[in-house]
Design a protein that fits this description.
- It comes from Hevea brasiliensis (Para rubber tree).
- InterPro entries: FBPase_C_dom (IPR044015), FBPase_class-1 (IPR000146), FBPase_N (IPR033391), FBPtase (IPR028343).
- It catalyses: beta-D-fructose 1,6-bisphosphate + H2O = beta-D-fructose 6-phosphate + phosphate.
- Belongs to the FBPase class 1 family.
- This protein is α+β, with helices and mostly antiparallel strands.
- The chain folds into 2 domains: 153 residues, Fructose-1,6-Bisphosphatase, subunit A, domain 1 (Fructose-1,6-Bisphosphatase, Chain A, domain 1), CATH 3.30.540; 116 residues, D-Maltodextrin-Binding Protein, domain 2, CATH 3.40.190.80.
- The protein has 10 helices and 13 strands.
- The strands form 2 sheets. An 8-stranded mixed beta sheet has the order 2-1-3-4-5-6-7-8, sandwiched between helices. Strands 10-9-11-13-12 form a 5-stranded mixed beta sheet, sandwiched between helices.
- The N and C termini lie far apart (47 Å).
């Protein structure tokens, strides 16, 4: 049997979780893969994967330039605004919302694209938080983009509250309460990487069948990498501790006696995916990334793979969100690299001159 990405789903999961061709799809893995996620979560993920395939096709379409933010902004203020093409991230948001509504399993969706969470249904089990299309500002240059999402249980103890209030409070759960999270990378391949609390697993879209195939079961981030991912152009705005760390590791004078290399795509999902595969650290030291939609879901994934997510001082998943669009510094990566980075102390950038790019 051939392997995908260096793995064989059959050998890792056993024949009971594999299809007739020996490969294991996402739905087969969740349904018969030896993990007890429950039927409700299987149904929810069937709709999430459907949404991601629609977004993948949209991103790859030769006609998506008409949906760019720049083109949309050019028509702002005209009488035809209502009929103007919508930016890709807005369309992606609508695709995800429709899929979650159709699943019949989601009580509330909170999205980076919406000012407030949207209450969908009463008496159903899940809350979904999402960044529908991360990295969309660079899509015209064909830079990889992604969708990030996290899944919580609905807080039934809040059911008596007014709809708006319970929608917000359900969306502001601590990352320790996540029951699943994932991202979809739209690149040379479309990869859905997810965790249900028992490891982190990667599924690659087979365009010939429309199935997400298990290609990277049980991902383990290396305890150390040799790559750091950060915008080096901001070096002189960084605090002294972060500058010392970067100076040290790229000279090979850190605890790992090899010179580190910089790799920076400026697309969070892409930078994180590479870090998960090869190890090292991906970071944005400014109060820039969102705790609810980005930091919590990705920190859950990296921890399930044996790494660490931090704001530079404390574990991301231990933080209690207080605002829906709360921003913070984010550091994700290999456990030993993260411990060394945090040991420098002063790594959160508080100076922000107001960057244009």
């Amino acid at each position: 049997m051939a392997s995908l990405g260096g793995f064989t789903a059959k050998s890792k999961m056993g024949t009971s979780a594999s299809g007739d061709n020996g490969f294991c799809t996402l739905m087969e893995y969740m349904g018969r893969g030896g993990i007890d996620v429950g039927d409700d979560l299987v149904v929810l993920f069937s709709h999430i994967q459907y949404a991601s395939k629609r977004i993948a096709a949209l991103v790859a379409s030769p006609f998506n330039s008409s949906l760019s933010k720049q083109d949309n902004a050019a028509g702002a203020g005209s009488s035809s605004d209502r009929d103007a093409p919508k930016p890709l991230d807005i369309v992606s948001n609508e695709i995800i919302l429709a899929s979650l509504q159709n699943s019949g399993k989601v009580a509330v969706m909170a999205s980076e694209e919406d000012d407030a969470p949207i209450w969908i249904d009463d008496g159903v089990p899940f809350v979904v938080v999402t960044d529908p299309l991360d990295g969309s500002r660079n899509i015209d240059a064909s830079i990889p983009t992604g969708t990030i999402f996290g899944v919580y249980k609905r807080l039934v103890e809040l059911d008596h509250l007014p709809q708006e209030e319970k929608a917000i409070l359900n969306s502001l759960q601590s990352g320790t309460r996540l029951v699943a999270s994932g991202y979809v990378l739209y690149s040379s391949a479309t990869i859905l990487c997810a965790s249900f609390g028992s490891g982190t697993h990667g599924f690659t879209l087979d365009h010939s069948t429309g199935d997400f195939i298990l290609t990277h079961p049980g991902i383990k981030i290396p305890p150390r990498g040799q790559i750091y991912s950060v915008n080096d152009a901001r070096y002189f705005d960084w605090p002294e501790g972060l500058r010392r760390y970067i100076d040290t590791v790229r000279q090979g004078k850190g605890k790992y006696p090899k010179k580190y290399s910089a790799r920076y795509i400026c697309s969070l999902v892409a930078d994180f995916h590479r870090t998960l595969m090869y190890g090292g650290v991906a970071m944005n030291p400014r109060d820039h990334l969102r705790l609810v939609y980005e930091a919590n879901p990705l920190s859950y994934l990296v921890e399930q793979a044996g790494g660490r997510g931090s704001d530079g001082k404390v574990r991301i998943l231990s933080l209690q969100p207080v605002k829906l669009h709360q921003r913070l510094p984010l550091f994700l990566g290999s456990l030993e690299d993260m411990e060394e980075l945090e040991s420098y102390g002063d790594i959160q950038q508080k100076v922000n001159p107001g960057y244009e790019v």
